[in-house]
Amino acid sequence: MNSAEKHLAILERMDGMIRRGQTGNAEEFADKLGIKKTCFFNKLQILKEMGGTISFSHPENSYIYEEDAPILNFKIGRLSKEYLESLLKKITYR
C-alpha cells in the first residue's frame, strides 16, 4: 500500500468510526487511528471539505455527522481522476 492509499484508508476509517459514534474526543480518536492529533485535525478538515458536516457531541463523547452525511467514496476506483489528484495534493501537504 503506497502513502496515498494509507491516507485514504485513514479517511475511510474515520468516516466509519464517526458513523458508528465510536470516536471519543480528538486525542482518543487520533490514538485509535495511530496518528498525531494535528494530523487528525487536518484529516477531519478534509472530511468536512468532502461534504461531511461533522461536530463533536459531548453527550455521546464522539464526533458525529450533524446531518445525514453523503456517502463518501474513498475507494480509488470510485473517485474521478481530477478529484483524486486534488485530494492527494491536500493529503500530501498536511
Task: Walk me through this protein's architecture.
- The chain has 94 residues and is mainly alpha-helical.
- 54% of the residues lie in helices and 9% in strands.
- A two-stranded antiparallel ribbon has the order 1-2.
- A hairpin with a 4-residue loop joins strand 1 and strand 2 (62-65).
- The longest helix is centred in the first third of the chain and has 18 residues, at 3-20.
- It is globular, with a radius of gyration of 13 Å.
- The model has no long low-confidence stretch (mean pLDDT 82).
Q: Could you estimate the helical fraction of the residues in percent?
A: 40-55%
User: Would you tell me the overall average pLDDT?
Assistant: 82
Secondary structure: number of strands? 2
Distance between the termini: 19 Å
Q: Characterize the largest beta sheet: strand count, sense, and whether it forms a barrel.
A: 2 strands, antiparallel
Order of helices and strands: HHHEEH
Radius of gyration: 13 Å
Strand content: 5-15%
Identify low-pLDDT runs: none
Oligomer state equals single chain
Q: What is the strand arrangement across the widest sheet?
A: 1-2
Count helical runs.
4
Give the class from helix and strand content and strand pairing. Answer: mainly alpha
Shape: globular
Please supply descriptive tags for the structure shown above.
single chain, 94 residues, mainly alpha, globular
